[in-house]
Predict the structure.
Amino acid sequence: MFPEYRDLITQLKTTDKHFLKLFEKHNELDQEIKNMESHVESGTADEIEVLKKEKLLIKDQLHDILKKASAA
């Protein structure tokens, strides 16, 4: 995710608790979605869709933080 910001992501994960929390939540959702899609965990198509939308909102928030931090 966002390879152009790799170094900045590493930095923000250690200096910005809010960014770290969002980053970890994004990864948790990603794993949960993968588990549901591969039937490791149970989940309906609607439940998966809700998780994907939540993950996308978090990704947008992360991107906004990265854009602001790189401009500073």
Remarks:
- The CA atoms of residues 22 and 58 lie 6 Å apart.
- The chain has one domain: 3-71.
- Residues 3-71 form one domain.
- The helical segments are 6-15, 17-37, 45-71.
